[in-house]
Amino acid sequence: MQKFISVHETSLQEGLNHIRQWLGVDISDALYNINNGKGSRFGSLAALSRNAACRALLAFYADQDIANFKNWAFVAASIDKITISEQLIGDYLIGDLCWAVLSDCEHLIEWYGSSADWFASARMKNQLHNPKSWAFYRYQAYLALRGDLDQLASRAKDFLSMATQRTPSRWITCEYEFHVALGEGNLQAMEQALQDMVSPARRAKVYKNQNGLTCNLMEAYATLYAKIAWRHGYAIDIGSPWIPQLLMPVDQSVQYTDPWKIF
Known about the structure:
Blueprint: H1 8-23, H2 28-36, H3 41-61, H4 66-85, H5 98-103, H6 106-114, H7 122-127, H8 134-146, H9 149-163, H10 170-184, H11 187-197, H12 200-206, H13 220-231
Helix pairs in contact: 1-3, 2-3, 3-4, 6-8, 8-9, 9-10, 10-11
């Protein structure tokens, strides 16, 4: 089991060792199942998505190969798109949007932005405008991704106004403060919110809830929001290794390939 390590250089080695262990898992059965309609479709797709994500992270953090990272991120996001489209999963975490957004593949990013129709269910609709709900929190990422910045900021202010009445944990308010700053185009406030998100205390608090592949390499939520800011024209750089700065510039010249011929 991985453990929280506050120093990035040490944490990075822990994370890379974890990724290499996952890459040692044979995926031939998963590929066979997908190509031949055998076994668990969801299980096979999940195994391939995880493998692609591991390859992406290794390409960047071990080989400094940004183009290869973006292609494997594209593969992971494309496979996850299948599981979502076929309703093989019931939920999707904000941090998991990283693969599509960091890939810079526009049609994938647009698809994920429009996938907010998940929130059309009766259960979600009942919670969507309740600042205390998980649905409200999740919906913020999709508003940011789609560029609905006025609504993003307005909802974040609703949360923060309510939050002052109950002394909330800092781990959540800093995200909403970023939403307000992005909506208002306040670069300094965006950078401060991201600094708060990658602080050792906040990372320790949310560590067990982060993606197991990225938690020792990057702060996935802060990275996602920083990249979204770049997509809106804000060249954020807080000088933190927990937000991989080399992945921030948007590059639409990447040539994407499907090495497994499954989508």
